[in-house]
Design a protein that fits this description.
globular; single chain; mainly alpha
Amino acid sequence: MSRTANTTAQDFVPFATAALDFHRALNLPSGPLVTTREELDALHAHLVSLHELLDAHSARTGRLVPAEGDQLHNARTLVWHAAEHLHTAYHAAPRPDSGEVPDLKACQPGLPEGAPERTICQRHQRAAHLVRRRTTPADLRTPFTGLIRR
């Protein structure tokens, strides 16, 4: 029995990478100087999906190859930190209609601005629930040093 994934299945990760590269090449050189809330929301969705993919790989691989599983676990944690920073950046970005910068605590009660503006908060809270279940507080606070946890 092979430990590696089936190579006959379609691998869509390279397409996601190419789409991000294409987006950057088309939109950033001539785009706005400030990142929009819509783009921050889309990037957050991308990172949360990447976090879930790494979580699945980490859980499966860690049982068979613990050293590789540890590295995937660390990568998953770093991606979560990046998603948290994007969520914070979203709240620091001005609203498109008024230019007002909302308070970070505004997302805690739910959807104060109404959908879809705060779907990023719902997504972030769902992902945070997974993070709390599968990651220790020490893992989230400790900077990654590259040292093996075993």
